From TrEMBL:
PANTHER family: DEOXYRIBONUCLEASE TATDN1, TATD FAMILY DEOXYRIBONUCLEASE. GO terms for cellular component: cytosol. This is Deoxyribonuclease Tat-D. A divalent metal cation 1 binds at H27, H29, E123, D234. It comes from Penicillium argentinense.
Length: 316
């Protein structure tokens, strides 16, 4: 069955979207190329059935911005609160020291959770691919501290793991029993064995364009149990590119709105090279093709998994 033959409209949750990125305000590398178009970006996604957005917080400031976006788009946008492993050094650099920053994070997360604006603690985790951003020691120390905060506040986890599976699983597994809603590893690019170990721990797997670059990636996607799958764009990053192994599965996928170079931008157009949540239709299409099932099955499973884990304002 193709999308055009669907009997009911497809609905999506984009569980990883960086709407606080300056690109959505028209800024690229510190230079303004066009007017901000966040309203249009969100509307385009709504038009294809993307009803919920989880706006990623990657440090204290960005988490505050994500919460503000959740305020500005009530019922549609929800924030995550946390410090990305590549930003772990910020704890030691914080005025007043790491304890002060942890205290600020706690306050922000508690208030935003109680206000119904934040639904997950993250993006937290480990990244040994990019140790030039933050060394191993602060990453480990502050991943552990933030996991303990999430347990204290009782928020599900929005997680990042790159080339660090052993330490990541060790720190995570001891705390998951204290988190009834568990968590999700987003933008997953690990091996089948890593995926299976995470699934056994009770963790969901988030898939976007970056998760489907290689044939090995596609084998992992094929093997993810539907009851553990969630989908995302990770915009403005992680678009599906013609060079990716996934591109061959795009035949028959819904067309995206016309895109132009940022310098030629005008209202109503996407920006070339800037991924946005409307492209979630293509992520779902490729996953369905790889798994040999309908897009309806992919969307229904991902929707149910996201709502079960994060709530997203939907009463169960």
């Amino acid at each position: 069955m193709t999308e055009a033959e669907s009997t009911k409209p497809l609905r999506y949750v984009d569980i990883g979207i960086n709407l606080s990125d300056p690109m959505f305000q028209g800024h690229y590398h510190g230079k303004k190329a066009h007017d901000g178009d966040l309203d249009d970006v969100i509307q385009r996604a709504k038009d294809i059935g993307c009803e919920k957005f989880m706006v990623t917080g990657s440090d204290l400031e960005e988490s505050q911005t994500a919460i503000q976006i959740a305020r500005d788009y009530p019922g549609f946008c929800y924030a995550t609160v946390g410090v990305h492993p590549c930003q772990a050094k910020l704890f030691d650099e914080y005025p007043g020291g790491p304890e002060k920053m942890i205290s600020e994070l706690r306050k922000l997360a508690v208030e935003a959770k109680e206000a119904g604006l934040a639904v997950a603690f993250g993006e937290i985790g480990l990244d040994y691919d990019r140790l030039f951003h933050s060394q191993k020691e602060p990453q480990l120390k502050y991943f552990e501290a933030q996991l303990d905060l999430a347990v204290e506040i009782q928020m599900p986890l929005f997680l990042h793991s790159r080339a660090a599976s052993e330490d990541f699983e060790r720190l995570l597994s001891s705390r998951l029993p204290s988190l009834p809603m568990g968590g999700l590893v987003h933008s997953f690019t690990g091996t089948i064995e890593e995926m299976q170990r995470l699934v056994e721990l009770g963790v969901d797997i988030g898939i976007n364009g970056c998760s489907m670059k290689t044939e090995e990636n596609l084998e992992v996607v094929k093997a993810i149990p539907l009851e553990r799958l969630q989908i995302e764009t990770d915009g403005p990053w992680c678009e599906i590119r013609p060079s990716h192994a996934s591109a061959k599965f795009l035949q028959g996928a819904p067309e995206l709105p016309k895109s132009v170079k940022k310098e030629k931008w005008q209202k109503g157009f996407m920006v070339k090279g800037r991924n946005e949540p409307v492209a979630i239709v293509r992520v779902a299409h490729v996953i369905a093709q790889v798994k040999g099932i309908s897009v309806e099955e992919v969307c229904e499973a991902a929707w149910n998994n996201s709502v079960k884990m994060f709530g997203l304002g939907i009463q169960s």
